[in-house]
Amino acid sequence: MKYVPKEIKEEVNVTAVHPLVNFGYLLGTVTLAGVILYASLGFIAARLATRIGPETEEKIGNTLIAGLISDPESASDDRIIYLTALAESLTPQDPSLPPLKIHILQPETASEDDLANSENAFAIAGGHIVFTQGLLEAVESENELAFVLAHEMGHLHNRDSLKAMGRSLVFLMLVSVLGQGQSGGARVIPATINVANLSYSRSQESAADRYAIALIVQHYDHGGGSLGFFERMQQQELDLGALNTVTEWQSTHPLTRARISRIKQIAAAQNWKMQGELTPLPEGISCVDFVCED
Amino acid sequence: MEFIIFIALLAIGFFAGSYAEQKHYLEIKQRERKSLHVPLMNFGAKQELPYAHEAQMFVGSVVIANDYFKTFAATLHNLVGGRVVVYESLLDRGRREAVLRMKEEAIAWGASQVVNVRFETSNIGGQETTRTPAMVEVIVYGTGIR
Protein backbone atom coordinates (compact mmCIF):
# COMPACT_ATOMS: atom_id res chain seq x y z
CA MET A 1 0.00 0.00 0.00
CA LYS A 2 1.42 3.30 -1.03
CA TYR A 3 1.42 6.26 1.32
CA VAL A 4 -0.25 9.29 -0.19
CA PRO A 5 0.27 12.45 1.86
CA LYS A 6 -3.06 14.10 2.54
CA GLU A 7 -3.71 17.08 4.73
CA ILE A 8 -6.55 16.71 7.22
CA LYS A 9 -8.50 19.95 7.23
CA GLU A 10 -11.39 19.31 9.60
CA GLU A 11 -10.84 19.71 13.34
CA VAL A 12 -12.54 16.73 14.90
CA ASN A 13 -10.81 17.03 18.24
CA VAL A 14 -11.92 20.55 19.04
CA THR A 15 -15.59 21.37 19.41
CA ALA A 16 -16.46 24.26 17.14
CA VAL A 17 -17.92 26.63 19.68
CA HIS A 18 -16.63 30.07 20.58
CA PRO A 19 -15.12 29.98 24.08
CA LEU A 20 -17.09 33.07 25.10
CA VAL A 21 -20.40 31.52 24.04
CA ASN A 22 -19.55 28.43 26.03
CA PHE A 23 -18.46 30.59 28.94
CA GLY A 24 -21.65 32.64 28.84
CA TYR A 25 -23.73 29.50 28.96
CA LEU A 26 -21.71 28.15 31.89
CA LEU A 27 -21.81 31.35 33.87
CA GLY A 28 -25.51 31.76 33.20
CA THR A 29 -26.34 28.27 34.41
CA VAL A 30 -24.22 28.48 37.53
CA THR A 31 -25.37 31.95 38.58
CA LEU A 32 -29.01 31.16 37.88
CA ALA A 33 -28.80 28.00 39.97
CA GLY A 34 -26.93 29.85 42.72
CA VAL A 35 -29.38 32.72 42.85
CA ILE A 36 -32.45 30.46 42.79
CA LEU A 37 -31.02 28.27 45.55
CA TYR A 38 -29.99 31.25 47.62
CA ALA A 39 -33.26 33.10 47.13
CA SER A 40 -35.42 30.13 48.09
CA LEU A 41 -33.28 28.88 50.98
CA GLY A 42 -32.62 32.44 52.12
CA PHE A 43 -36.34 33.15 52.15
CA ILE A 44 -36.99 30.08 54.29
CA ALA A 45 -34.09 30.90 56.62
CA ALA A 46 -35.26 34.50 57.03
CA ARG A 47 -38.78 33.30 57.83
CA LEU A 48 -37.45 30.80 60.34
CA ALA A 49 -35.15 33.39 61.91
CA THR A 50 -38.06 35.71 62.63
CA ARG A 51 -39.69 32.92 64.63
CA ILE A 52 -36.89 33.10 67.18
CA GLY A 53 -38.34 34.16 70.53
CA PRO A 54 -37.34 37.44 72.20
CA GLU A 55 -35.27 35.67 74.90
CA THR A 56 -33.17 33.75 72.37
CA GLU A 57 -32.83 36.87 70.27
CA GLU A 58 -31.53 38.74 73.30
CA LYS A 59 -28.97 36.01 73.95
CA ILE A 60 -27.78 36.16 70.34
CA GLY A 61 -27.69 39.94 70.48
CA ASN A 62 -25.64 39.96 73.66
CA THR A 63 -22.93 37.80 72.10
CA LEU A 64 -22.87 40.02 69.04
CA ILE A 65 -22.64 43.24 71.02
CA ALA A 66 -19.91 41.81 73.25
CA GLY A 67 -17.71 41.45 70.21
CA LEU A 68 -18.19 45.10 69.42
CA ILE A 69 -18.14 46.93 72.74
CA SER A 70 -16.11 45.73 75.67
CA ASP A 71 -18.33 45.46 78.73
CA PRO A 72 -21.57 46.92 77.32
CA GLU A 73 -23.47 46.41 80.61
CA SER A 74 -21.40 48.74 82.74
CA ALA A 75 -21.36 51.62 80.24
CA SER A 76 -22.94 54.61 81.89
CA ASP A 77 -23.44 57.70 79.85
CA ASP A 78 -26.21 60.25 80.32
CA ARG A 79 -26.52 60.43 76.57
CA ILE A 80 -27.79 56.85 76.56
CA ILE A 81 -30.58 57.88 78.95
CA TYR A 82 -31.42 60.81 76.67
CA LEU A 83 -31.45 58.62 73.53
CA THR A 84 -33.54 55.95 75.24
CA ALA A 85 -36.07 58.59 76.29
CA LEU A 86 -36.10 59.94 72.74
CA ALA A 87 -36.76 56.44 71.39
CA GLU A 88 -39.51 55.93 73.94
CA SER A 89 -41.12 59.23 72.94
CA LEU A 90 -41.08 58.22 69.26
CA THR A 91 -42.92 54.97 69.86
CA PRO A 92 -43.56 52.87 72.98
CA GLN A 93 -41.71 49.56 73.36
CA ASP A 94 -43.24 46.68 71.42
CA PRO A 95 -43.77 43.91 74.03
CA SER A 96 -43.15 41.15 71.46
CA LEU A 97 -39.62 42.44 70.80
CA PRO A 98 -36.66 42.43 73.18
CA PRO A 99 -36.32 45.71 75.12
CA LEU A 100 -34.46 48.46 73.35
CA LYS A 101 -30.88 49.00 74.46
CA ILE A 102 -28.84 51.90 73.18
CA HIS A 103 -25.05 51.90 73.02
CA ILE A 104 -22.56 54.54 72.08
CA LEU A 105 -19.45 53.32 70.38
CA GLN A 106 -16.52 55.30 71.79
CA PRO A 107 -13.11 55.08 70.14
CA GLU A 108 -11.63 54.21 73.56
CA THR A 109 -13.87 51.23 74.34
CA ALA A 110 -14.69 49.95 70.88
CA SER A 111 -12.76 47.08 69.37
CA GLU A 112 -12.50 49.03 66.13
CA ASP A 113 -11.44 52.67 66.27
CA ASP A 114 -12.30 53.42 62.66
CA LEU A 115 -15.87 52.34 63.12
CA ALA A 116 -16.34 54.49 66.22
CA ASN A 117 -15.05 57.55 64.41
CA SER A 118 -17.17 57.03 61.30
CA GLU A 119 -20.63 58.59 61.14
CA ASN A 120 -22.73 55.51 61.53
CA ALA A 121 -25.52 53.86 63.45
CA PHE A 122 -26.74 50.29 63.24
CA ALA A 123 -29.20 47.87 64.74
CA ILE A 124 -28.16 44.49 66.12
CA ALA A 125 -30.50 41.60 66.89
CA GLY A 126 -31.74 41.62 70.48
CA GLY A 127 -32.92 45.23 70.53
CA HIS A 128 -29.48 46.85 70.39
CA ILE A 129 -29.00 50.13 68.61
CA VAL A 130 -25.44 51.38 68.35
CA PHE A 131 -24.57 54.99 67.67
CA THR A 132 -21.01 55.88 66.88
CA GLN A 133 -19.26 58.77 68.53
CA GLY A 134 -18.62 60.14 65.04
CA LEU A 135 -22.34 60.34 64.33
CA LEU A 136 -23.12 62.14 67.57
CA GLU A 137 -20.44 64.68 66.71
CA ALA A 138 -21.90 65.21 63.25
CA VAL A 139 -25.63 65.64 63.99
CA GLU A 140 -26.95 69.20 64.04
CA SER A 141 -30.52 68.90 65.30
CA GLU A 142 -32.63 66.54 67.33
CA ASN A 143 -34.80 65.92 64.27
CA GLU A 144 -31.83 64.46 62.40
CA LEU A 145 -30.79 62.31 65.31
CA ALA A 146 -34.36 61.12 65.82
CA PHE A 147 -34.60 60.13 62.18
CA VAL A 148 -31.48 57.98 62.41
CA LEU A 149 -32.78 56.47 65.63
CA ALA A 150 -36.21 55.80 64.09
CA HIS A 151 -34.58 54.23 61.04
CA GLU A 152 -32.71 51.76 63.24
CA MET A 153 -35.87 51.13 65.26
CA GLY A 154 -37.51 50.34 61.92
CA HIS A 155 -34.87 47.66 61.32
CA LEU A 156 -35.57 46.16 64.74
CA HIS A 157 -39.32 46.39 64.13
CA ASN A 158 -38.96 44.51 60.82
CA ARG A 159 -36.46 42.13 62.48
CA ASP A 160 -34.02 42.77 59.67
CA SER A 161 -30.94 41.85 61.66
CA LEU A 162 -32.33 38.39 62.40
CA LYS A 163 -33.30 37.88 58.77
CA ALA A 164 -29.84 38.91 57.71
CA MET A 165 -28.37 36.36 60.10
CA GLY A 166 -30.58 33.61 58.69
CA ARG A 167 -29.61 34.48 55.16
CA SER A 168 -25.92 34.73 55.87
CA LEU A 169 -26.10 31.23 57.32
CA VAL A 170 -27.51 29.97 54.00
CA PHE A 171 -24.91 32.02 52.18
CA LEU A 172 -22.03 30.44 54.06
CA MET A 173 -23.50 27.00 53.52
CA LEU A 174 -23.91 27.51 49.77
CA VAL A 175 -20.42 28.89 49.41
CA SER A 176 -18.89 26.00 51.25
CA VAL A 177 -20.91 23.42 49.31
CA LEU A 178 -20.68 24.92 45.82
CA GLY A 179 -17.25 26.37 46.29
CA GLN A 180 -15.74 23.12 47.50
CA GLY A 181 -12.71 22.30 45.40
CA GLN A 182 -13.45 25.10 42.96
CA SER A 183 -11.24 28.11 43.02
CA GLY A 184 -13.34 29.83 40.38
CA GLY A 185 -16.74 28.75 41.59
CA ALA A 186 -15.85 29.89 45.07
CA ARG A 187 -15.36 33.37 43.71
CA VAL A 188 -18.21 33.88 41.29
CA ILE A 189 -21.00 32.48 43.40
CA PRO A 190 -20.45 34.76 46.40
CA ALA A 191 -20.14 37.72 44.07
CA THR A 192 -23.48 37.13 42.35
CA ILE A 193 -25.25 36.19 45.55
CA ASN A 194 -23.83 39.30 47.12
CA VAL A 195 -25.39 41.46 44.41
CA ALA A 196 -28.73 39.72 44.91
CA ASN A 197 -28.39 40.15 48.66
CA LEU A 198 -27.52 43.83 48.43
CA SER A 199 -30.70 44.54 46.51
CA TYR A 200 -32.63 42.80 49.28
CA SER A 201 -30.76 44.86 51.84
CA ARG A 202 -31.58 48.08 49.98
CA SER A 203 -35.27 47.26 50.04
CA GLN A 204 -34.98 46.69 53.80
CA GLU A 205 -33.33 50.08 54.12
CA SER A 206 -36.16 51.72 52.22
CA ALA A 207 -38.70 49.98 54.45
CA ALA A 208 -36.86 51.25 57.52
CA ASP A 209 -36.84 54.75 56.03
CA ARG A 210 -40.61 54.58 55.52
CA TYR A 211 -41.08 53.46 59.11
CA ALA A 212 -38.80 56.23 60.35
CA ILE A 213 -40.38 59.12 58.49
CA ALA A 214 -43.84 58.09 59.73
CA LEU A 215 -42.59 58.12 63.34
CA ILE A 216 -40.85 61.45 62.90
CA VAL A 217 -43.88 63.17 61.41
CA GLN A 218 -46.05 61.74 64.16
CA HIS A 219 -43.68 63.01 66.84
CA TYR A 220 -42.67 66.44 65.53
CA ASP A 221 -45.79 67.07 63.35
CA HIS A 222 -43.45 67.69 60.42
CA GLY A 223 -40.52 65.97 58.72
CA GLY A 224 -38.44 69.13 58.40
CA GLY A 225 -34.74 68.91 59.17
CA SER A 226 -34.86 65.16 59.68
CA LEU A 227 -32.99 64.52 56.45
CA GLY A 228 -30.30 67.11 57.16
CA PHE A 229 -27.76 64.42 57.93
CA PHE A 230 -28.38 62.69 54.61
CA GLU A 231 -28.34 65.95 52.71
CA ARG A 232 -24.86 66.67 54.03
CA MET A 233 -23.82 63.11 53.13
CA GLN A 234 -25.17 63.57 49.62
CA GLN A 235 -22.86 66.52 49.05
CA GLN A 236 -19.93 64.20 49.68
CA GLU A 237 -21.26 61.59 47.31
CA LEU A 238 -20.02 61.64 43.73
CA ASP A 239 -22.63 62.21 41.07
CA LEU A 240 -21.82 59.76 38.29
CA GLY A 241 -24.93 60.39 36.20
CA ALA A 242 -25.97 57.22 34.40
CA LEU A 243 -23.41 55.22 36.38
CA ASN A 244 -25.36 55.86 39.59
CA THR A 245 -27.45 52.72 39.11
CA VAL A 246 -24.31 50.67 38.75
CA THR A 247 -22.83 51.97 41.98
CA GLU A 248 -26.17 51.44 43.70
CA TRP A 249 -26.08 47.71 42.85
CA GLN A 250 -22.88 47.37 44.78
CA SER A 251 -24.03 49.04 47.95
CA THR A 252 -26.03 47.92 50.97
CA HIS A 253 -27.87 51.22 51.22
CA PRO A 254 -29.70 53.03 48.47
CA LEU A 255 -27.79 56.05 47.25
CA THR A 256 -28.37 58.98 49.55
CA ARG A 257 -29.78 61.03 46.68
CA ALA A 258 -32.29 58.35 45.75
CA ARG A 259 -33.04 57.83 49.42
CA ILE A 260 -33.90 61.47 50.06
CA SER A 261 -36.13 61.67 47.02
CA ARG A 262 -37.90 58.42 47.99
CA ILE A 263 -38.59 59.73 51.49
CA LYS A 264 -39.83 63.03 50.08
CA GLN A 265 -42.16 61.15 47.71
CA ILE A 266 -43.63 59.22 50.61
CA ALA A 267 -44.14 62.45 52.54
CA ALA A 268 -45.74 64.15 49.54
CA ALA A 269 -48.10 61.21 48.99
CA GLN A 270 -49.20 61.35 52.64
CA ASN A 271 -49.43 65.15 52.64
CA TRP A 272 -46.85 65.40 55.38
CA LYS A 273 -45.20 68.73 56.02
CA MET A 274 -41.50 68.56 55.26
CA GLN A 275 -40.71 71.95 56.78
CA GLY A 276 -40.95 73.07 60.34
CA GLU A 277 -39.15 74.30 63.39
CA LEU A 278 -36.12 72.28 64.42
CA THR A 279 -35.73 70.97 67.92
CA PRO A 280 -32.23 71.79 69.17
CA LEU A 281 -29.97 69.08 70.51
CA PRO A 282 -29.05 69.11 74.18
CA GLU A 283 -25.79 70.91 74.91
CA GLY A 284 -22.71 68.72 74.71
CA ILE A 285 -24.20 65.79 72.75
CA SER A 286 -20.76 65.01 71.40
CA CYS A 287 -19.22 64.48 74.83
CA VAL A 288 -19.67 61.75 77.44
CA ASP A 289 -22.38 62.68 80.01
CA PHE A 290 -22.92 65.94 78.07
CA VAL A 291 -19.83 67.36 79.79
CA CYS A 292 -17.25 68.73 77.41
CA GLU A 293 -13.92 69.31 79.08
CA ASP A 294 -12.62 72.20 77.03
CA MET B 1 -12.06 45.61 44.40
CA GLU B 2 -11.29 41.91 44.53
CA PHE B 3 -13.97 41.36 41.93
CA ILE B 4 -12.45 43.95 39.59
CA ILE B 5 -9.05 42.25 39.85
CA PHE B 6 -10.73 38.96 39.13
CA ILE B 7 -12.49 40.35 36.02
CA ALA B 8 -9.21 41.87 34.85
CA LEU B 9 -7.42 38.53 35.28
CA LEU B 10 -10.18 36.81 33.32
CA ALA B 11 -9.89 39.37 30.52
CA ILE B 12 -6.10 39.05 30.39
CA GLY B 13 -6.45 35.26 30.38
CA PHE B 14 -8.99 35.34 27.61
CA PHE B 15 -7.32 37.82 25.26
CA ALA B 16 -3.74 36.71 25.77
CA GLY B 17 -4.80 33.06 25.75
CA SER B 18 -6.84 33.21 22.56
CA TYR B 19 -4.17 35.30 20.82
CA ALA B 20 -1.51 32.72 21.69
CA GLU B 21 -3.82 29.90 20.65
CA GLN B 22 -4.63 31.40 17.25
CA LYS B 23 -0.98 32.08 16.53
CA HIS B 24 -0.06 28.58 17.61
CA TYR B 25 -2.68 26.96 15.40
CA LEU B 26 -1.52 28.92 12.34
CA GLU B 27 2.04 27.78 12.99
CA ILE B 28 0.99 24.17 13.64
CA LYS B 29 -0.96 23.97 10.37
CA GLN B 30 1.88 25.40 8.38
CA ARG B 31 4.44 23.01 9.89
CA GLU B 32 2.12 20.04 9.45
CA ARG B 33 1.85 20.76 5.74
CA LYS B 34 5.63 20.86 5.51
CA SER B 35 6.16 17.54 7.29
CA LEU B 36 3.31 15.72 5.58
CA HIS B 37 5.60 13.59 3.39
CA VAL B 38 6.84 11.49 6.32
CA PRO B 39 4.16 9.02 7.45
CA LEU B 40 3.62 7.92 11.03
CA MET B 41 2.87 4.22 11.22
CA ASN B 42 1.91 1.77 13.91
CA PHE B 43 2.52 -1.95 13.66
CA GLY B 44 1.12 -4.78 15.69
CA ALA B 45 3.31 -7.23 17.63
CA LYS B 46 3.12 -9.94 14.98
CA GLN B 47 3.37 -7.65 11.99
CA GLU B 48 6.62 -7.35 10.15
CA LEU B 49 8.37 -4.03 10.51
CA PRO B 50 9.42 -2.20 7.34
CA TYR B 51 12.98 -2.87 6.23
CA ALA B 52 15.42 -0.21 7.43
CA HIS B 53 19.13 0.44 7.37
CA GLU B 54 19.05 2.47 10.53
CA ALA B 55 16.58 3.17 13.28
CA GLN B 56 16.56 5.73 16.05
CA MET B 57 14.12 6.86 18.68
CA PHE B 58 12.78 10.38 18.53
CA VAL B 59 11.02 12.17 21.35
CA GLY B 60 8.97 15.30 21.07
CA SER B 61 7.64 16.92 24.18
CA VAL B 62 5.82 20.12 24.91
CA VAL B 63 4.40 21.81 27.97
CA ILE B 64 1.33 23.94 27.44
CA ALA B 65 0.07 26.23 30.16
CA ASN B 66 -3.51 26.83 30.95
CA ASP B 67 -4.69 30.43 31.09
CA TYR B 68 -6.82 31.99 33.79
CA PHE B 69 -9.90 32.09 31.60
CA LYS B 70 -9.65 28.41 30.72
CA THR B 71 -9.10 27.43 34.35
CA PHE B 72 -12.14 29.39 35.43
CA ALA B 73 -14.36 28.04 32.64
CA ALA B 74 -13.21 24.52 33.50
CA THR B 75 -14.04 24.92 37.18
CA LEU B 76 -17.53 25.99 36.16
CA HIS B 77 -17.69 22.85 34.05
CA ASN B 78 -16.94 20.94 37.22
CA LEU B 79 -20.29 22.12 38.55
CA VAL B 80 -22.46 21.50 35.50
CA GLY B 81 -20.58 18.77 33.64
CA GLY B 82 -20.33 18.36 29.89
CA ARG B 83 -17.52 18.65 27.38
CA VAL B 84 -14.74 20.89 28.58
CA VAL B 85 -14.44 22.77 25.31
CA VAL B 86 -11.70 25.08 26.55
CA TYR B 87 -9.39 22.18 27.38
CA GLU B 88 -10.00 20.36 24.11
CA SER B 89 -8.04 22.92 22.12
CA LEU B 90 -5.33 23.00 24.80
CA LEU B 91 -4.68 19.26 24.57
CA ASP B 92 -5.10 19.23 20.81
CA ARG B 93 -2.39 21.87 20.49
CA GLY B 94 -0.16 19.96 22.87
CA ARG B 95 -0.45 16.69 20.95
CA ARG B 96 0.08 18.24 17.54
CA GLU B 97 3.00 20.35 18.68
CA ALA B 98 4.68 17.33 20.29
CA VAL B 99 4.18 15.23 17.13
CA LEU B 100 5.64 18.04 15.06
CA ARG B 101 8.70 18.35 17.26
CA MET B 102 9.34 14.63 17.04
CA LYS B 103 8.72 14.54 13.32
CA GLU B 104 10.86 17.57 12.53
CA GLU B 105 13.78 16.04 14.38
CA ALA B 106 13.30 12.77 12.53
CA ILE B 107 13.10 14.56 9.20
CA ALA B 108 16.32 16.43 9.95
CA TRP B 109 17.95 13.06 10.64
CA GLY B 110 16.62 11.83 7.31
CA ALA B 111 13.82 9.49 8.35
CA SER B 112 11.60 8.04 5.65
CA GLN B 113 8.94 7.18 8.18
CA VAL B 114 8.36 7.09 11.92
CA VAL B 115 6.94 3.85 13.26
CA ASN B 116 5.18 2.86 16.46
CA VAL B 117 4.34 6.28 17.76
CA ARG B 118 3.20 6.55 21.38
CA PHE B 119 1.67 9.42 23.34
CA GLU B 120 2.02 10.20 27.02
CA THR B 121 0.38 13.05 28.91
CA SER B 122 1.16 14.27 32.36
CA ASN B 123 0.04 17.07 34.59
CA ILE B 124 2.62 19.53 35.88
CA GLY B 125 1.96 21.88 38.77
CA GLY B 126 -1.69 22.48 39.58
CA GLN B 127 -1.44 21.06 43.07
CA GLU B 128 -4.70 20.16 44.75
CA THR B 129 -4.01 22.35 47.75
CA THR B 130 -2.87 25.57 46.11
CA ARG B 131 -5.18 25.30 43.08
CA THR B 132 -2.68 26.90 40.77
CA PRO B 133 -3.61 26.75 37.12
CA ALA B 134 -2.38 23.46 35.70
CA MET B 135 0.05 22.85 32.89
CA VAL B 136 0.02 19.81 30.72
CA GLU B 137 3.01 18.04 29.25
CA VAL B 138 2.57 15.90 26.15
CA ILE B 139 5.35 13.52 25.15
CA VAL B 140 5.32 11.74 21.82
CA TYR B 141 7.94 9.17 20.91
CA GLY B 142 8.47 6.89 17.99
CA THR B 143 11.12 5.08 16.02
CA GLY B 144 12.43 6.86 12.98
CA ILE B 145 13.80 4.64 10.21
CA ARG B 146 15.83 5.35 7.10
Structure notes:
The complex is a heterodimer of chains A (294) and B (146). Chain A has one domain (24-290). Helices cover 57% and strands 5% of the residues of chain A. Chain A is built from 11 helices and 3 strands. Chain A has a 3-stranded mixed β-sheet with strand order 1-3-2. In chain A, strand 2 and strand 3 form a beta hairpin. In chain A, helix 1 (19-49) packs across helix 7. Chain A starts with 18 loop residues before the first helix and ends in a 25-residue tail after the last helix. In chain B, a hairpin with an 8-residue loop joins strand 3 and strand 4. Chain B is elongated and about 65 Å long. Chain B has 146 residues and is of the alpha+beta class. At the A-B interface, helix 1 and helix 8 of A face helix 1, helix 2 and helix 3 of B.
CATH class term of chain B = Alpha Beta
Question: What is the end-to-end distance of chain A?
Answer: 106 Å
* Largest sheet: number of strands, sense, barrel closure of chain B: 4 strands, mixed
Strand content of chain B: 25-35%
Provide the domain count of chain A.
1
Helix segment tally of chain B: 3
Which sheet architecture does the biggest sheet of chain A show?
Answer: 3 strands, mixed
Order of adjacent strands in the largest pleated sheet of chain B: 1-3-4-2
GO molecular function, one term (chain A): metalloendopeptidase activity
Domain Peptidase M48 (chain A): 117-266
Keywords (chain A): Hydrolase, Membrane, Metal-binding, Metalloprotease, Protease, Transmembrane, Transmembrane helix, Zinc
InterPro entries (chain A): Mito/Outer_Membr_Metalloprot, Peptidase_M48
